[in-house]
Amino acid sequence: MSANPTRTLKRQLSSLMARLAHRPALTPAELVALCPRRILIVRQHNQMGDMVCATPALRAIRETFPGAEILLVTAPVNEEVVLHNPHLDHVVTFDKKMWRRPTELFRFVGRLRNYRAEVAFVLSSVSFSVTSSAIALFSGTRYVVGGDSAPFGWDISRHAFSLEMPSEPVQKTHTVEHNLAPLRAIGISTDDHSTVVVPSPEETAFARRILTDLGMGPGFWAIHPGAGKKQNVWPAERFAEVASRAVAAGENILILHGPADAGPLAAVTGLLADEMGSGGVQVAPACPVGVGAALLQQADRFLCNDTGVMHMAGALRVPTVTLFGPTDPALWKPPAPEVVVVRSGGRLPDRRGEEFGWMENIDVDTVWEAWQGLPGRQRIS
User: Fold this and answer.
1) Tell me, what's the pLDDT at 9?
2) For the whole model, what pTM was predicted?
3) CA separation (Å) from 304 to 184, 221, 274?
4) pLDDT in tens, 50-66
5) Most buried of the four, 74, 150, 211, 333, by CB within 10 Å?
6) CB–CB of 272/281 below 8 Å?
């Protein structure tokens, strides 16, 4: 197979950029002794679950440098996930469309250069982000610390970074530990591996207004029937059956959803037509991530697939049953005791394709027993 010419050009340009942007070397001991006043962290990946699982790494940097002012650059989709994180002072977003918008890119780089960070950390997990590296180098920061790019086929870190952290392209440990390991190797760590999502008071107030408009109060049972990957979606009729059982038991159900969940949402609401509205089932309006988190915070318990909102529920310590298909929960289950996993026994033959057949092995009775058996949480006034 011939090489992708765009990727080849990107490699050549990135290698040249790395040589031109060389930063002075720094040892781990010198980094810790530096006690920087301003730190830039770049984690530009655009998966919500990955960002939630990276929050302990943010805590590790904060605990190591408690007096520093910390600015994080992330993707727009994750802004609300980290906007009120107690380990950060500022959050700035970078949209990759800026590469084609010189004026916006110039303003963005100018803002970072005016911040005058003394150290920049480029955080990654199972991939190496050339974009994140470029942002750190363009910021003008004297020292840049990031993962070794060689295991991912890039010739950047050894030329440009002040200090390389070890990289592991294959995830062998829980994703929180996988995010922390490179930092720990250079003396930056934390004993607290819990994840963090913090809705603001304004988002909480907005969520309560939504509940009032729906005629609901705190203590409802919430479900989220969608997922970003088809192989992670439990059949809609089974979500509907579990919701019907909860309504029959006297509980109110709130259905949460995101932009990619139109299909599962329509299927579940269609099957629950008799229970919709005053029948005990309500659908939350489309709302920002932070407001969705605030709604979850009001729930007694939650049922969802293996998807980004699962990590949000774990960070909020909402009693949750989460349904796993092909993904290993040992690597991806939220690190919260309130989250219980029901996992598929394997893939069943499915003529629709390889993405299907994973979740059909999870039966309604097993899920209902697990969900009903959760301790719930204290009602929030």
Assistant:
1) 57
2) 0.91
3) 32, 11, 22
4) 999 999 999 999 999 99
5) 74
6) yes
